[in-house]
Amino acid sequence: MKKLILFLACLLPLVLTAGSSTFEPIQMGTENSEDATCLWLRADLGSALDILPLKTREWATKDSVTGGAAIKFTFSTGSMGIASMEYKGLPKGSAGLTFYAKASEPVSLKVCETADCAVTTEWKKFDIPWEKFGATRDNPKLPWQLKFGIKYPVERKIVLWLDRIGFESPAFDNSPRLDIQAGPDPVISSKELIYGAENLSGVVSNLKAKKSFKVIAFGDSVTAGAQSFRSTWALNKNKKASDFLYFSHLARLMRDEFGYKEIKAVQFGHGGWTTAQGIGIADKEVIKEAGPDDLVIIQFGGNDLMGRTSMAAWKADEKKLIAKVKTKTKNILVMGITYGAGIERYADEITKTLKELVSEEKVAAFDDTKLSLYRGVKFAYSLNANQFHPDYVGHITIAEMMIPAFTGKQVTYPE
Is the per-residue pLDDT at 342 higher than 50? Predict the structure, then answer.
């Protein structure tokens, strides 16, 4: 028996070494493509004229090969059919890029405008050696963005799934360990995210009466539009960049729904600011701008909690800010906190606080924290370009989930 144990002990390293391969997901910032599904890898929506109606949707799905989550893109007719991401370093000595893909119909997927991959309706592994990109394993190179694209323009709706994107070393693995999952993704209704819609009756009356008013957004870097243009680089520093942020699109949806064009979006966004900092400048910005018919959206909190402000202190500051805004208008909508790593620890308290503000201050609230986290952390980055910041798809989706507060027509996500 001792001889058998010794024999197996000597054989084990050989078994593990022979044909072994190590998978390394793509790194960007402090995250990687396996643990933060959808983060950084975002759709290119084209120019300002291309974006609406939104032709590309993106979210994390449980229909996956590893980790319980993959990226799902829906490219509708006229879509650019492109998704791209930056990356942090490429592993020397690796064989090249590897990923799994499938689509709603057979489609040719071009990677970095160089490698053509014949994607089918079943999950398939694609291994692209560095040499295909004009590089070597000792000196791996890719363009500044890793880009996936199908034929442009998209002629009919195509759904594309991507998973396990990264690199394998020292050779590609012909049979990696998988954990394939399938089935429909749970959905959430806008009704579960909107609290106190009855407190917006003044706005609804204005809409029905076709009365002019402003949608004024006052918040942190989310309202400022940080990272919103990621992968849609044509909008970077473009004067139209703010036209597709959540508050602008909400105003647009109001105009479309009620057939009245005199609804203007106004932006006061401050990157890195807390609610307390907002209180300090409110008089010069939102209070000066707002009138009795206007809607004011308050969007602060991420920097508060990440800066270790207590939930009680955040709520107290929100109440102070609400009190200031009430001197000009009673039409107030308070937002939760878009997802960033660590927010899951506060999710239940954020929801509780929003509901308390609705009850105590007679305002409305939109729980974007729940929108991000209702399926769990694995899926929480579906709307995000990077930590805390939605891209344009995320901003537009938030507005779409908000508009039922004014129309009463509930919608679900993802659709």
Answer: yes
Strand 332-335 relative to strand 295-299, pairing: parallel
Number of domains composing the chain: 2
Q: What is the 3-state secondary structure (H, E, C) of 265-298?
A: EEEEECCCCCHHHHHHHHHHCHHHHCCCCCEEEE
Q: Are strands 188-189 and 124-129 parallel, antiparallel or unpaired?
A: unpaired
In a domain, residue 233? The reply is yes
Query: What Rg value do the Cα atoms of the chain yield, rounded?
Result: 24
**Same-domain pairing of 196 and 163:** no
Under 8 Å between Cβ of 110 and 150: yes
Q: Is the dihedral of CA 364, 366, 369, 373 positive or negative?
A: positive
Distant-in-sequence, close-in-space partners of 405: CB < 8 Å, separation ≥ 6: 190, 194, 197, 200, 333, 364, 366
| Segment (H or E) for 256 | helix 246-258
Residue 156 and residue 198 in one domain: no
Question: 168 by DSSP, 3-state: which?
Answer: strand
Measured between its terminal Cα atoms, the distance across the chain in Å is 61
pLDDT in tens, 146-164: 999 998 889 999 999 999 9
Residue 276 has pLDDT above 70, yes or no: yes
Please tell me the pTM assigned to this model. Answer: 0.94
Rounded distance, CA 299 to CA 337, Å?
A: 8
Beta bridge partners of 219: 269, 299
CATH number, domain at 271?
3.40.50.1110
Residue 8 lies inside a defined structural domain of this protein: no
Domain match, 161 and 217 both = no
Residue 194 shares a structural domain with residue 163: no
d(CA 119, CA 125): 9
User: Same domain, yes or no, for 157 and 290?
Assistant: no
What is the distance between the alpha carbons of residues 309 and 323, in angstroms, rounded to a whole number? 20
DSSP SS3 for 116: strand
Residues 392 and 346 reside in one and the same domain: yes
Distances (CA, A) of 94 to 48, 67, 183: 39, 22, 34
Name beta bridge partners: 268.
218
Residues 142 and 31 in one domain: yes
Instruction: Please enumerate in sequence order all residues whose Cβ is within 8 A of that of 348, keeping only pairs 6 or more positions apart, or say none.
Output: none
Check residue 118 and give its pLDDT.
Answer: 98
Domain enclosing residue 226, as ranges: 188-413
Tokens representing 171 are 């050779």
Q: Which two three-digit tokens encode residue 114?
A: 């160089």
